[in-house]
């Protein structure tokens, strides 16, 4: 028994930390909140929802773009965006939030609060190394020889851990939220820049410039010297393609700017590939009239998922779907630095938003308990009688 | 390089047809593994390769190339490989105030103007083979494009792209006896009435090419063990007009892809 077994706050929940420290001689600076992928060694960050991480192959690779097709009322896609940003706050990443409808500060105030065990680990790390007092009721009775061993270091627990759980009914504490550095871009407050010679309309152009300024200034593309600790930038872009961004791809059959969003995504991916950042973009795809444009948008992103919620549709009363809030379609999974991509087991996935977890599960068909069961029974009895009669016995 | 694909197409790095225009297309699937095959194939054959990588970064191809046994970084240093990385320079080009027509990525700033800058870049690259300082003479030039249909998303018209491929074919295949491999990604067949669509582009390119490889998902639905089907269409070549089509199933692994006749997957047998 190497680790002291006592009721320390947070130790039982963070069960995989032991006093065993691996000797690492690698020169790679490990960034908090990331881990290398098992499949191809890519650096992954969590999307905030652990079942979504599992579905897309372990997590979001740094340098890639996640596209979320919104559901009809933008409730669950907005929830996913908030999980993504909350995960960034808890891991200590930098955030960049751009939206055209709601002010970014409003979205930041609605972030769900992380579940207490994890955060307690962070708070304990402030006042660590307290010697065990004699009147501490948790003195060990059996393994008393280990009483004076140093406490297992939980200081790194919250940053080493990949993927956290959030309580949707509470919002994140302001202190925790303000500890994270957040850049915001609110489209309605930006002054339109006249860019006559650019193929992009002004809002997208200014958004790209703003993203590039942040990346360059904070050194995410490696341009500043390594005096600071390396970090990951999380970009959350809400509802791109909607009319508020100056784009008419969602409201016309033959939009005037039909290439604006696709050009924007192409250049955004170029920016992501050359910096330590991850982007999550939500698009109201149910409003686009042109399916070909959605196909191109999906191919221009790396990972693409679509949410289809049952609210307001006839599927809400369907007994097949009564346990779930909606369906999740995985449209595309990326092949990064390897030939093959993560091949999912099944493509029938449904999601449910519970208070403490956003679960994504395989959709099962319920057992068919109709009259066929009776027929099977009848057939069985008849066969038994035939067998008995053929053997010369009297039927029972 | 996939050995099974070589035997299907009857070509090896030591002996392959020249002046070939190979079109790789897909519909709702991903045919980029074939581009990796051709990249390693032609590098092994010792050809001078001009690669327009418009959708992925150099390190992606380099990592896959290492698994397939070729080192792209080394080839680039020696001058055998010229790589145009579209993603990396795209933002810089967009922000520039002066747009020069002769720049390769000038279509980002003015998509309506056509692809002349890109063609000039390709031409200068493939004609350079004779005048290297080290005196290394490479084989016939090869042009690889991954992926041409992204230019449609950036606003270039189908006509301009077809013009570009005609110019390239005239220079690379007819004049210099080299090969060309182009990847085009298409939409669904019935998403039509779209004059600027990728289906139009694919039909135009199939008409020009010698060999068309078309990758699709299985018509019966999703399967974990068989990743899709590939149709090989041998088209006209010179005077001989042979029009032979065959369908194979394939599965992509870490280090390659295996091709087999329909119904003979190892998961089934």
| Strand order of the biggest β-sheet of chain A | 8-5-9-10-4-11-12-13-14
SSE run of chain B: HEHEHHEHHEHHEHEEEE
Sequence stretches where pLDDT stays below 50 over 5 or more residues of chain A? 1-16, 118-135, 153-159
Largest interface: A-B, 35 and 45 residues
- What would the average pLDDT of chain B be, to the nearest integer? 86
SSE arrangement:
The complex is a heterodimer of chains A (396) and B (269).
Chain A: E1 34-36, E2 43-45, H1 50-55, E3 60-61, E4 65-69, H2 76-91, E5 94-99, H3 104-109, E6 112-114, H4 116-124, H5 157-160, E7 166-171, H6 174-179, E8 182-186, H7 202-218, E9 233-237, H8 260-273, E10 277-283, H9 291-300, E11 303-309, E12 326-332, E13 349-353, E14 358-362, H10 372-390
Parallel strand pairs in A: 4-10, 4-11, 5-8, 5-9, 9-10
Antiparallel strand pairs in A: 1-2, 2-3, 6-7, 11-12, 12-13, 13-14
Helix pairs in contact in A: 7-8, 8-9
Chain B: H1 3-9, E1 21-27, H2 32-44, E2 48-53, H3 58-68, H4 72-78, E3 81-85, H5 86-95, H6 116-126, E4 141-146, H7 150-153, H8 158-175, E5 179-186, H9 198-208, E6 211-216, E7 228-234, E8 244-252, E9 257-261
Parallel strand pairs in B: 1-5, 1-6, 2-3, 2-4, 4-5
Antiparallel strand pairs in B: 6-7, 7-8, 8-9
Question: Keywords for this structure?
Answer:
heterodimer; A: 396 residues; alpha/beta; 9-stranded mixed β-sheet; 3-stranded antiparallel β-sheet; 10 helices; 27% helix; disordered N terminus; B: 269 residues; 9 helices
Task: Give your account of this protein's structure.
The complex is a heterodimer of chains A (396) and B (269). Chain A starts with 33 loop residues before the first strand and ends in a 6-residue tail after the last helix. Chain A has 10 helices and 14 strands. By secondary structure, chain A is an alpha/beta fold. In chain A, the strands form 3 sheets. In chain A, strands 8-5-9-10-4-11-12-13-14 form a 9-stranded mixed beta sheet, with helices on both faces. Chain A has a 3-stranded antiparallel beta sheet with strand order 1-2-3, with no helix packed on it. In chain A, 27% of the residues lie in helices and 17% in strands. Chain B starts with a helix and ends in an 8-residue tail after the last strand. The model of chain B has no long low-confidence stretch (mean pLDDT 86). Chain B is α/β, with parallel strands linked by helices. A 9-stranded mixed beta sheet of chain B has the order 3-2-4-5-1-6-7-8-9, with helices on both faces. Classes of the chains: A alpha/beta (396), B alpha/beta (269). The interface between A and B is large, with 35 and 45 residues. Chain A: It is found in: Cytoplasm; Nucleus. Chain A: Belongs to the ELP4 family. Chain A: InterPro entries: Elongator_complex_protein_4, P-loop_NTPase.
């Amino acid at each position: 028994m190497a680790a002291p077994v006592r009721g320390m706050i947070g130790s039982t929940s963070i069960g995989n930390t032991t006093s065993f420290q691996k000797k690492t001689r690698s020169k790679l600076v490990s960034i908090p909140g990331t881990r290398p992928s098992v499949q191809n060694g890519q650096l992954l960050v969590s999307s905030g929802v652990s079942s979504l991480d599992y579905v897309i192959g372990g997590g979001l690779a740094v340098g890639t773009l996640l596209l979320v097709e919104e559901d009809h009322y933008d409730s669950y896609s907005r929830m996913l965006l908030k999980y993504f940003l909350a995960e960034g706050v808890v891991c200590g990443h930098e955030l960049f939030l751009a939206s055209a409808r709601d002010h970014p500060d409003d979205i930041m105030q609605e972030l769900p609060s992380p579940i207490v065990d994890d955060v307690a680990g962070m708070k304990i790390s402030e006042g660590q190394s307290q010697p065990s007092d004699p009147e501490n009721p948790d003195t060990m009775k059996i393994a008393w020889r280990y009483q004076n061993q140093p406490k297992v270091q939980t200081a790194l627990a919250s940053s080493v851990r990949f993927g956290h759980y959030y309580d949707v009914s509470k919002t994140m504490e302001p202190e925790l939220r303000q500890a994270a550095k957040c850049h915001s871009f609110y489209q309605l407050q930006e002054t339109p820049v006249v860019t006559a010679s650019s193929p992009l309309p002004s809002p997208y152009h200014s958004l790209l410039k703003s993203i590039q300024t942040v990346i360059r200034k904070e050194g995410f593309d490696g341009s500043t010297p390594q005096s600071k600790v390396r970090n990951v930038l999380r970009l959350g872009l809400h509802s791109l393609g909607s009319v508020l961004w100056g784009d008419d791809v969602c409201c016309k059959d033959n939009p005037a700017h039909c290439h604006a969003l696709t050009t924007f995504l192409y250049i955004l991916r170029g920016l992501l590939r050359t910096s330590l950042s991850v982007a999550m973009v939500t698009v109201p795809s149910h409003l686009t009239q042109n399916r070909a444009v959605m196909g191109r948008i999906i191919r221009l992103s790396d990972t693409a998922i679509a949410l289809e919620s049952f609210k307001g549709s006839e599927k809400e009363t369907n007994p097949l779907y009564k346990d779930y809030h909606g369906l999740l379609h995985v449209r595309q999974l990326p092949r990064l630095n390897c030939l093959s991509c993560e091949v999912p087991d099944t493509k029938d996935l449904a999601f449910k938003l519970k208070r403490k977890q956003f679960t994504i599960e395989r959709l099962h068909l319920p057992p068919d308990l109709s009259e066929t069961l009776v027929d099977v029974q009848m057939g069985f009895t008849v066969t038994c009688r035939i067998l008995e009669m053929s053997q010369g016995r009297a039927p029972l | 390089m996939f050995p099974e694909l070589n035997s299907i197409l009857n070509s090896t790095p030591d002996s392959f047809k020249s002046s070939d225009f190979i079109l790789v297309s897909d519909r709702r699937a991903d045919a980029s593994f074939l581009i990796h095959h051709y990249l390693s194939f032609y590098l092994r054959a010792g050809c001078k390769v001009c690669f327009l990588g418009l959708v992925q970064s150099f390190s992606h191809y380099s990592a896959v190339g290492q698994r397939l046994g070729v080192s792209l970084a080394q080839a680039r240093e020696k001058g055998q490989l010229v790589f145009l990385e579209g993603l990396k320079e795209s933002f810089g080009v967009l922000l520039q105030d002066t747009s020069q027509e002769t720049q390769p990525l000038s279509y980002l700033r003015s998509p309506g103007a056509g692809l002349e800058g890109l063609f000039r870049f390709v031409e200068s690259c493939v004609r350079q083979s004779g005048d290297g300082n080290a005196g290394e003479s490479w084989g016939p030039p090869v042009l690889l494009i991954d992926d041409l249909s992204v230019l449609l998303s950036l606003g270039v018209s189908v006509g301009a792209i077809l013009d570009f491929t005609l110019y390239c074919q005239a220079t690379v295949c007819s004049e210099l006896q080299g090969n060309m491999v182009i990847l085009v990604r298409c939409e669904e067949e019935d998403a039509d009435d779209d004059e600027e669509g990728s289906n139009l582009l694919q039909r135009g390119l199939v008409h020009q090419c010698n060999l068309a490889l078309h990758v699709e998902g299985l018509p019966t639905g999703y399967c974990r063990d068989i990743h899709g089907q590939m149709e090989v269409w041998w088209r006209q070549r010179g005077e001989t007009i042979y029009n032979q089509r065959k369908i194979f199933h394939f599965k992509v692994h870490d280090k390659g892809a295996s091709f087999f006749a329909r119904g003979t997957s190892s998961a089934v047998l």
